[in-house]
């Protein structure tokens, strides 16, 4: 979030202890479309004045789900395994001073937290400690603090390589500061660069998109205030500029995310609605050729609210739209220059105007389908598409054993044949896909899967959870 424009108006709220269905486009005081309110926890309950970022963690041993909520004075940990009755486990205090800006990511069962508070550094917290909280809420201390920078605006992690990228620090002119976190509690400075100026936010991937020239390379896409920057950061000692791109009527190039095929990059500008007016504007870039990216088209939403953080999951773009709350946009027709809002949950019912209140961020990657909204004024909200169901879908049709598993599983049909499976990780990425001649059961090698929770889609009709230990 661009600090010049932040205004906080604290609104007292309370814990919601029961699910509130979205009925006739309302869930209690909130406008909604296709998303139920599962539960909420107020800022006052968490001892904070304002909320900011959010992320999530799924325990690879138990499948339990946890929301991580950024606050002005720390980071809250919430067990959402029972989404209707979440447990506020406690808070890790800010390392130095309170700040409206905090950012959180997760790698190898550890949370990494940065803030714009002076001298804060990067807090590292072992999330497995949340398994044994005897008397919640507790006050937690970090397991380690990385101090090679003080304040930072954002932390970006490439889970495939074990490198973190702090952006908006005083080091490298605000450009990316590289950190090796492969041993999470022993972070090692790994360089950085300043030649592109201040980076506000970034995404880093092992590239598997349509441009064969960069297959397997570690590619960083940065939102740098006035432009989008594409760099190859495979060699940390020599990050190489690929290209930059701009777009009309730039306000503040804020944050973006790849589509799952890495063909398109979806970008939000944080202050164009405020400075120029009009409806929420989202830029869609065609990155088929990383050396020659193009602005493909611009999507305009139904309100005048400012867009903030957005993430892609299972063919949908989940946008934190400040005063308009969460907006869910279907991307299935993006190749034809068309995307469409299909669901919403307005966490800020007072208005949909262009100001800095409401939904700061969202986390849509839980296998359960529960979606976290972190709200500046209201704290934590949990919403869900009621059509997803709360348990395995069509669970009686097939069984998986053993579960949890290590090397092999057997999938058996009770009254129908097995013909196909697709296995998704918690980010919704396909990690395994097989088609079979019809059979009542199949033995499947899962030894290449990392420990964690997965969803197994069987015959396109049945969904079951699988835990790899």
Write a short abstract of this structure:
1% of the residues lie in helices and 45% in strands. With 469 residues, the chain is mainly β. The chain folds into two domains: 14-388, Methylamine Dehydrogenase, Chain H, CATH 2.130.10; 395-468, Immunoglobulin-like (Sandwich).
Describe the structure.
The chain has 469 residues and is mostly beta strands. The chain folds into 2 domains: 14-388, Methylamine Dehydrogenase, Chain H, CATH 2.130.10; 395-468, Immunoglobulin-like, CATH 2.60.40. The protein contains 1 helix and 38 strands. The strands form 9 sheets. Strands 1-2-28-27-26-25 form a 6-stranded antiparallel β-sheet, with no helix packed on it. Strands 4-5-6-7-11 form a 5-stranded mixed β-sheet, with no helix packed on it. It has a 4-stranded antiparallel β-sheet with strand order 3-31-30-29, with no helix packed on it. The longest helix has 4 residues, at 272-275. The chain is globular and about 60 Å long. The two termini are 38 Å apart. Residues 400-468 form the Secretion system C-terminal sorting domain. One of its GO terms (cellular component) is extracellular region.
């Amino acid at each position: 979030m661009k600090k010049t424009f932040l205004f906080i108006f604290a609104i007292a709220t309370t814990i919601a202890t029961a699910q509130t269905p979205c009925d006739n486009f309302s869930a209690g005081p909130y406008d909604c479309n296709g998303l139920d309110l599962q539960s909420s926890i107020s800022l006052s309950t968490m001892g904070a004045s304002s909320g900011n970022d959010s992320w999530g963690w799924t325990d690879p041993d138990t499948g339990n789900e946890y929301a991580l909520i950024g606050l002005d004075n720390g980071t809250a940990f919430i067990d959402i395994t029972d989404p209707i009755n979440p447990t506020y486990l406690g808070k890790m205090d800010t390392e130095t001073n309170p700040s409206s800006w905090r950012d959180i990511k997760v790698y190898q069962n550890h949370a990494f937290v940065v803030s714009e508070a002076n001298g804060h550094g990067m807090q590292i917290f072992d999330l497995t400690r949340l398994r044994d909280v005897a008397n919640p809420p507790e006050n937690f201390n970090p397991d380690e603090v990385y101090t090679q920078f003080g304040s930072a605006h954002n932390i970006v992690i490439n889970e495939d390589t074990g490198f973190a990228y702090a952006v908006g620090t005083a080091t490298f002119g605000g450009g990316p500061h590289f950190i090796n976190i492969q041993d999470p509690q022993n972070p090692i400075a790994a360089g950085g660069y300043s030649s592109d100026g201040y980076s506000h936010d970034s995404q880093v991937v092992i590239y598997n998109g349509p441009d064969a020239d960069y297959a397997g390379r570690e590619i960083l896409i940065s939102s740098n205030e006035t432009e989008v920057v594409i760099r190859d950061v495979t060699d940390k000692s020599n990050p190489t500029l690929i290209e930059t791109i701009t777009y009309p009527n730039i306000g503040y190039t804020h944050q973006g995310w790849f589509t799952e095929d890495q063909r398109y990059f979806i970008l939000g500008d944080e202050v164009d609605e405020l400075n120029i007016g009009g409806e929420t504007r989202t830029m869609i870039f065609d990155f088929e050729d990383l050396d020659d990216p193009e602005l493909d088209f611009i999507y305009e939403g139904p309100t005048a609210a400012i867009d903030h953080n957005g993430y892609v999951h299972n063919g949908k773009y989940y946008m934190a739209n400040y005063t308009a709350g969460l907006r869910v946009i279907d991307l299935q027709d993006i190749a034809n220059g068309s995307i469409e809002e299909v669901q919403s949950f307005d966490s800020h019912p007072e208005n949909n105007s262009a100001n800095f209140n409401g939904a700061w961020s969202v986390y849509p990657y839980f296998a359960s389908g529960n979606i976290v909204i972190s709200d500046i004024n209201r704290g934590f909200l949990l919403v869900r598409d009621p059509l997803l169901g709360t348990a395995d879908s069509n669970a009686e049709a097939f069984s998986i054993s053993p579960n949890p598993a290590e090397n092999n599983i057997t999938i058996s049909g009770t009254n129908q044949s097995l013909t196909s499976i697709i296995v998704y990780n918690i980010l919704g990425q396909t990690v395994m896909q097989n088609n079979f001649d019809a059979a009542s059961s199949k033995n499947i090698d899962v030894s290449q899967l990392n420990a964690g929770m997965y969803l197994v889609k069987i015959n396109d009709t049945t969904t079951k959870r699988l835990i790899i230990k």
